[in-house]
Design brief:
Blueprint lengths: L1 H36 L2 E2 L8 E2 L3 H7 L2 H32 L6 H13 L2 H11 L6 H8 L14 H26 L3 H9 L4 H12 L1 H16 L3 H6 L11 H10 L4 H29 L4
Antiparallel strand pairs: 1-2
Length: 293
């Protein structure tokens, strides 16, 4: 009887073991190794690593570049996550009306998402060219002055954000479109019979029922924004004057340009902690705001 109970208790472990082994090998072990490196001084080439304790973290907290990168990261998250969700929802509401050629529009809007970020960024770097780029040509056509999209610190982050939003909005639209089509029609009909306006039906019926999709998109887009690298590297390399250097790009520069692995690892640990904290807060808030059918 004792053996049977023991085996029953081990069953969940045995079933999850095939998934836990790659998780431990490819995620947990590297994470613990990076945590260890954050307490050392290493240049990537020396055979020995010097243990320095909390020195990397104290230096990081006293580095103005860290706070500037943190500010850029916050602005990048706010400037990409919220517009992607709002524009994706707006497009989904439009496509849900079954307009003529909506299937073609959906394909065109979704295609940037499946296109490699590097390729997208290269195309946009041509669009942002100061002299012959399409972006300034459009501005000049309407009588507006040209903008140094990637050369001016005031506009560089905006330029990177436009690329990020353009690439992701079609992906968010598809998820919202599926969620909208899963809203029970009888609830909408009941609201209409009760005299609810289209806005009231959306706010009282549709929005609560698609809130799980909103939570999913918010968390995934937030993590994606914190991990943004390709478009920044291709378009601006973190410049000009650090105006587009996020925490992840600061990590890249510390590790692979300055070869300060300990310092870079401390940035990575802080970034992971921020990501975990924001995810926990998101799920905590969602318990009150997310409605599951």
């Amino acid at each position: 009887m004792t053996r049977s109970k023991l085996f029953s208790g081990l069953k969940p472990v045995l079933f999850t073991l095939p998934a836990m082994i790659p998780f431990a090998v490819f995620w947990l072990t590297p994470l613990l190794y990076v945590l260890y490196l954050s307490f050392t001084e290493w240049d990537f080439m020396s055979p020995e690593k010097t243990f320095v304790g909390w020195e990397n973290y104290t230096d990081l907290l006293g580095n103005p570049a860290f706070y500037k990168a943190l500010r850029v990261t916050v602005l990048f998250c706010l400037g990409s996550v919220l517009p992607v969700i709002l524009l994706g929802l707006g497009l989904a509401l439009l496509m849900n009306r079954k307009l003529k050629g909506s299937a073609l529009y959906q394909i065109l809007l979704f295609s940037p998402w499946v296109t490699p970020t590097v390729a997208v960024s290269i195309v946009w770097s041509w669009i942002y060219q100061p002299e012959a780029g399409l972006a300034n040509a459009v501005l000049n056509f309407f009588g507006l002055d040209s903008i140094g999209w990637l050369q001016d610190p005031k506009w560089a982050l905006t330029g990177v954000l436009l690329v990020t939003i353009w690439k992701s909005v079609g992906w968010a639209m598809i998820f919202y479109l599926v969620a909208l089509r899963n809203v029970p029609s009888d609830l909408l009909e009941a609201g209409e019979l009760d005299g609810a306006s289209p806005v009231q039906k959306f706010l009282r019926i549709t929005w609560p029922l698609i809130s799980p999709t909103t939570l999913f998109l918010f968390v995934v887009q937030l993590v994606s924004a914190l991990q943004a690298y390709d478009q920044i590297n291709v378009l601006t390399q973190g410049g000009p004057s650090g105006s587009t250097r996020t925490l992840l790009y600061l990590y890249y520069q510390s590790a692979f340009e300055s070869f300060q692995i300990g310092e870079a690892s401390s940035v990575a640990v802080v970034l992971v902690l921020i990501c975990m904290l924001l995810s926990v807060l998101s799920f905590g808030i969602s318990k009150r705001t997310t409605h599951y059918q």
